[in-house]
Design a protein that fits this description.
The structure holds 2 protein chains of 2 kinds. Chain A is an alpha/beta fold. Chain A is built from 9 helices and 19 strands. In chain B, a hairpin with a 4-residue loop joins strand 1 and strand 2. Chain B is an alpha/beta fold. A 6-stranded mixed β-sheet of chain B has the order 6-9-10-3-11-12, sandwiched between helices. A 4-stranded antiparallel β-sheet of chain B has the order 2-1-4-5. The chains are: A alpha/beta, B alpha/beta.
């Protein structure tokens, strides 16, 4: 590699630096961006536990065992139970690359949806403007290596109720770096379901490093639901940076059901007045799994609202964590923010951390947060058993009931039912773990 | 079968008729057995405090018994021990249910074998839908008996008919178990569950407490509708009120962990007159 690096390189980044080849035939600006990002990654290294946003995740195993960018995998089939029913628009990425044969892109007017590679050629201005975040180490690594991803660009005023389905399928070992962009024009409305799936059988250890930017124009509305069911040995690190304009609404939901180490981070900045943000989520961890949900919501304008409900369940020796930061800037008056984190521990060796954080610099605002970590309600368990329901089934009913509150907030009925079904299937497996 | 409205009984037998037949068949072998035999039962709390100090009671199929007594006499503990609630230690005695050692069974198995408790304080279970819960309970029992699980249609027909009888709104069934129910609705929901599960031995723990007169009548109608030759009902109550509507064959007075007096239904009226204070003197 010819890059001249004149600052100390963090040792854990070395294998990635050595593996960097760039992608032939890309525009100059992108090539420069990739090299700049790689340098940044080399300088930053892996985030340590002293880094506040990473304090609950142990990255040592990943740092010690490099997972170099994976080659293009072969197209395979997407398990039907992981798809929502219907003949809607679907874009499938296999090992981080667009898989045209598995996709169904009958797009309504005013909607551009395609691979990141195609967007670089067809929508270079849009993509270039969105590719600027190299502040976070793994976003920088992603910038250097991303092979593909998707871009959804919606014209102003276009309202689509039928959800768009994005399926991220992993089949190979190594690391998969995907970079995606959602851009909603003023007054447009979209629903996106993103599903992250990996092989559950062959235990291929892979690392998905998924980075996305969302831009919501004035009065736009995005509902984005993420379902994460990665392979048993997988590392999934997802990072979303969103900006939401005046009067726009972002409605996000994440359901983390599988993967050895799963982290989903969303950073939302309200750039206009009276913007609304809801970030709900739930996770289940068992065995020795780890899951983190990390959110930062930055109120910079007047009259914004935030609502967060995160529910976590940990069994076995698993570890879950939620970190939620809400910033209310000076002048962001009439902000109304609520954050709730409720957690359930099954068994004596599971651990859940929850850390709400409010940083408030305005005086005329409402902010409320609550957090709890508890065990299954023994009285409720007995009540179910006293009606003949076997203990294991009764426990499952209670855990499902506990998590359901978060899933019930999903407005789209087909997506809600789909997620409840996946949740039920995950809980049925929990008993044998 | 005193006090039983024949129309109601016919109605209850109608719904889920298949399982009633099946039970009658198996009940045949049990003729001559007491349904419930409690012998010298002693139970204490985890802290060692003895609550039941030698209970003897036999209940036969088709009978309705009332257990009365002052607060703290052990009535609710007796119910809890019979259904297998944690937190009690049996130090002496035995409980035989249809020839089986009841105390050896886990709580959920007791329920599948036909033992039902109408809770004094029904538990609220957020997130668990009433219908879903009830169907899970019904199907657990059916699997246990080797019967096919109910499909949604069969289940719904049974639910609707029995809801109507107890004047419970169908909307309530779409909510989480007991969440947002009034006190009376919770108690009616208990009797509704009992009607759906068709137990062999039903224990009603202070089902009348906190009910206004209209709710009490509804609950009583539900209970009377469940009186059957192959079913025994044990009502635990502080007051005679419920017994005006659901007439027991036998009345027992529990005091300080023992049954100190037993008699026919006139005993309940007598207790109402003279109070529990005099029972010990009479005994």
């Amino acid at each position: 590699m010819s890059t001249l690096i004149d600052f100390p390189v963090k040792p854990e980044t070395r294998p990635y630096l050595d593996a960097f080849r760039g992608i032939a035939g890309e525009p100059d600006w992108l090539e420069r961006f990739r090299r700049r990002s790689l340098d940044r990654f080399a300088e930053l290294g892996f985030p340590g536990r002293r880094s506040e946003n990473w304090r609950y995740l142990d990255l040592q195993p990943l740092a010690k065992n490099p997972l170099l960018p994976a080659a293009r995998g072969h197209e395979t089939v997407v398990p039907a139970e992981l798809l929502i029913e219907g003949r809607g628009v679907r874009l499938v990425l296999v090992d981080g690359r667009f898989a045209p044969k598995l996709s169904r892109l009958d797009l309504p007017e005013g909607v551009w949806l395609g691979s990141m590679q195609r967007a670089i050629a067809e929508l270079p201005e849009l993509v270039r403007a969105a590719l600027e975040d190299i502040a976070q180490p793994f976003a920088a690594l992603n910038a250097a290596f991303f092979a593909d991803g998707f871009v959804l660009d919606v014209a102003p005023g276009v309202v689509i109720d039928q959800p768009i389905e994005i399926v991220h399928l992993a089949s190979a070992a190594g690391s998969l770096h995907t970079r995606s962009l959602i851009n909603l024009g003023a007054g447009s409305r979209m629903t996106v379901l993103e599903t992250y799936i990996g092989p559950s059988e062959n235990n291929a250890r892979y690392w998905r490093n998924d980075v996305a930017a969302w831009q919501l124009g004035e009065g736009a509305s995005l509902t984005r639901v993420a379902l994460v069911e990665e392979g048993a040995d997988a590392v999934h690190l997802g990072e979303v940076a969103a900006t939401i304009g005046a009067g726009a609404t972002l409605d996000g939901f994440v359901l983390l059901l599988g993967g050895d180490t799963v982290r989903h981070e969303a950073s939302v900045t309200m750039t206009g007045d009276h913007a609304h943000c809801r970030l709900d989520g739930a996770f289940i961890v068992a065995g020795r799994e780890e899951a983190n949900i990390v959110t930062t919501i930055d109120h910079t304008a007047i009259g914004g609202t935030t609502s967060e409900l995160i529910k976590g369940v940990a069994a076995g020796r698993a570890h879950g964590a939620f970190q939620g930061k809400i910033i209310v800037r000076e002048g962001a008056q009439q902000t109304d923010a609520r954050q709730t984190s409720r957690n359930l521990i099954l068994g004596r060796r599971a651990v859940i951390d929850t850390k709400p954080e409010l940083e408030i610099l305005a005086d005329d605002i409402k902010c409320a947060h609550g957090a709890s970590v508890g065990e299954l309600d023994e009285a409720a368990l007995f009540y179910l058993r006293a009606r003949g329901i076997p203990t294991e089934e009764a426990r499952r009913l209670l855990v499902e009931g506990f998590l359901r509150e978060a899933v019930d907030g999903i407005a789209h009925p087909a997506i809600r039912e789909h997620l409840l079904g996946r949740l039920g299937a995950r809980l049925a497996r929990l008993e044998s773990e | 079968m005193a006090g039983l409205d024949p129309a109601i009984h016919a109605f209850f037998s109608d719904v889920g008729g298949a399982s009633v037949d099946a039970r009658n068949k198996s009940g045949h072998d049990e003729i001559g057995l007491f349904m419930l035999e409690i012998r010298n039962l002693h139970a204490q709390l985890k802290d060692g405090r003895e609550i039941l100090k030698g209970i003897d009671l036999t209940v036969a199929a088709g009978e309705v018994h009332a257990i009365m007594g002052p607060n703290g006499s052990g009535k609710s503990t007796l119910a809890a021990v019979l259904v297998g609630r944690d937190g009690y230690e049996i130090t002496e005695g035995s409980v035989t249910y249809l020839g089986h050692d009841l105390l050896a069974m886990p709580a959920d198995e007791r329920a599948r074998q036909g033992v039902f408790l109408a809770f004094q304080y029904p538990v609220e279970i957020p997130g668990v839908n009433n219908m879903y819960f009830l169907r899970a309970a019904l199907n657990a029992g059916r699997r246990h008996r080797g019967e096919p699980e109910l499909d949604a249609g069969q289940f719904l027909r049974g639910v609707r008919a029995k809801l109507k009888l107890l004047e419970i709104s169908e909307d309530l069934m779409q909510r989480a178990v007991n969440v947002g129910f009034s006190g009376g609705e919770k108690k009616r929901n208990e009797i509704f569950q009992m009607a759906m599960l068709e137990p062999k031995l039903a224990i009603l723990d202070e089902t009348d407490s906190g009910l206004d007169i209209d709710a009490l009548r509804l609950v009583a109608r539900g209970v009377n509708g469940l009186r059957a030759p192959d079913r025994a009902i044990v009502m635990i109550t502080h007051y005679q009120r419920l017994l005006d509507y659901v007439e027991p064959g036998r009345v027992h007075v529990l005091q300080d962990g023992r049954i100190v007096e037993s008699g026919d239904k006139s005993l309940a009226a007598e207790l109402e007159r003279r109070g529990y204070g005099a029972v010990g003197d009479a005994a």
